[in-house]
């Protein structure tokens, strides 16, 4: 026996937010619940078996903090809400929805999108050293940079240092035109993306000239002590064990470091061990250090990226 239910949405903005581009969210809700989900103006119609309709209603209601204020909902939000219902974590879901990490300069709210991302954010807040390992698109660098810029703007740290090992994915930096700064820039795109979300683009060069924000290849960290700084080491899978030890021991007083990388994407020579993989083995149980593991379920880019990551994982195993 079929059943149907109508949910009245408060405004056309909330209907647009819930439906998503090309009604992608409605399709996702239908896939997640088995129900038929149709939007007619500001009325959401859910029909199917009793169980499908009940699940559909619970899922839509659990996303209400987003759509009720017209905040765009993504496929990842729907998957996280479904996971919360399956695992009785509705309270955790509410905490995740309430925890605004920062507002962009356009006033948009930035939040963690998945439970593991939120664990990662909490780890950065509580620990002086946090490692985050996971595939592309899981927000490892972006979230760290957002928290770092936020901390810099509220004067918790005097400077922000962004660094990466200069190992290229099959390309040689030496052939690129320009000085060191120009050669390193393409490397730091994810970090710049986060900076641009939070700061006026005009202000960034000034902050860099004053050394408040420093962008440097890993080799430039040797012999320094980094006091009162928030340090992000990105693409850490491309460090050698010696480089990793060198950078970790730079951490000075009142400083915080986040190390991000994807151990499956190493560009080091075949016989060279990754400093990130070794650090994970050596430091796993050291007090005061957090390790966070993100997976393809935490990919927050285009849904296609999730499927690409999954397909590669399947092929490689």
Summarize the structure.
The chain is an alpha/beta fold and 317 residues long.
Question: Which terms summarize this structure?
Answer:
317 residues; 11 strands; 6-stranded parallel sheet; 14 helices; alpha/beta; 3-stranded antiparallel sheet
Helix content: 40-55%
Strand content: 15-25%
Category from helices, strands and their pairing: alpha/beta
Order of helices and strands: EHHEEHHHHEEHEHEHHHEEHEHEH
Question: How many strand units?
Answer: 11
Task: Compute the average pLDDT.
Answer: 87
Question: What is the terminal-to-terminal distance?
Answer: 44 Å
By DSSP (H or I, 4+ residues per run), the number of helices equals 14
Describe this protein's structure.
This protein has 317 residues and is α/β, with parallel strands linked by helices. It has 14 helices and eleven strands. Helix 2 packs across helix 3, helix 7 packs across helix 8 and helix 12 packs across helix 13. About 2% of the residues have low confidence. A six-stranded parallel sheet has the order 8-7-9-10-6-11, with helices on both faces. A three-stranded antiparallel sheet has the order 1-3-2.
